Amino acid sequence: MGRIEIHRPPGGWPEREQQVADYYGRRAAGHDRGRRRLLDGGDQELTFSDGNATVRVNSLGFLHYAVVALGTPNVTFMVALDTGSDLFWVPCDCVSCAPTSSGTNGFDFDFSIYSPNMSSTSQGIPCSSNLCERHRCSKDSSQCTYNVEYVSDDTSSTGVLIKDLLYLTTEDTSSKVVKTPIVFGCGMIQTGSFLDAAAPNGLFGLGMDKLSVPSTLSSSGITSNSFSMCFGRDGLGRINFGDNGSSDQEETPINTRNLHPTYNISLTGIGVRNISMEVGFSALVDSGTSFTYLADPAYSSLAKSFNSQVHDKPFTADSDIPFEYCYQISSNESMVQLPDISFTAKGGSHFPINDPIVLISNEKKRQFIYCLAVIKSTQLNIIGQNFLTGLRVVFDRDRMIVGWKKFDCYKVEDSNPLPVNPRNSSATPPSIAFSPSSYTPEATKGKGHNGTEASVLTPGAASSHSSLVNTLASTILLLLLLPLSII
């Protein structure tokens, strides 16, 4: 068995608000730019002008967020990074948007609102533009409008298409700013999860449509047609445009789909410790889905095999926890052993699952619980954000492959260390589920060796974390920022 030690970080868990505020503080104090080597061919790598760091915000859907700058003068936005959708949109001239003022949004800083009238470089996209072909025109004007509905219940964004400048920077020693005209959504009306659970300040679609930013950068000749995301085990990560990966990465082909292409890959097997199962299915690699979804036969093969190798007492989860296989850790137990999990991809590549569980505590009942963090689906197979943890994932749209490699996001090949020093870098927050009044996170994980081992806190340690309990598990865990049009 692989070993992962789970322990409480010194000084306790940082609150969600402080985590994001600290990130903004680091951004303001100095740009977080990794110095990466340029890969074969000399293609330059780019990232956002405010740095290539991304941060997972558990209270906002367990998604990774980054800071982007738009317009003239530029305005910054904290946007969710979503490989499962194409359109980049931000709140704009709002009719219905998430709260933006300090305190009302649950954080101690204000979110920005974009307005075309406040940017001297803003241009509307007319109906006659070929960029409007998948969208439509409003009855009252000739400007191209958009409406994207997502799988999460009643979740959508509606507005008009705008062209303006996105500020990027080169990932080399010169760090030159690159002002890139891109098309994005001026999101006037948001509904559902965008109002209270995720992406309150915008969604950055990284899909394969020609409107997505990676497609724009490639078609403009600014970068190669590839990008990477690194999902750190401590909740921090990296994003780089033009990154073609490395020769030692594992990879598998992207399944070709002419209508609404996605990062869909084929998997041929599932391994759970010493049990190998030949199970063929395709799955979408989607950073905009909080947790992994599997339909049968893949779900039952994985879940039942995992369950057969776990020796802790089964826990019957209530309706606030949508995971089927959960286990109770007794008060006198200090360690639990978990089986390693992996997928086999088309071509034989090995896809390791570094973060397969959710840790939960129930303060009232003084219980400790963990669950296999996979949700049973009736139709979709999605490798969600939690199963991407611990990997640098490369989306190479020229070669039509998805590549991955176990990676420390703070150590870059042939480079100096990145300037950000993560809080408690030896500890890793696991994915966390909790109900309105009962559950709170209690532990973090750090990479060890040869096994999956969890060390458990005493029940009395839970009392200091009640401020973290303000989000419904049923809302967070069922979050899919996946457009209905691609299903």
Automatic annotation (TrEMBL):
The active site is at D82, D286. PROSITE patterns: ASP_PROTEASE (PS00141), PEPTIDASE_A1 (PS51767). Residues 419-455 are annotated as: Disordered. One of its GO terms (cellular component) is plasma membrane. One of its GO terms (molecular function) is aspartic-type endopeptidase activity. It is a lipid-anchor. Residues 422-441 have a biased composition (Polar residues). This is Peptidase A1 domain-containing protein. It comes from Asparagus officinalis (Garden asparagus).
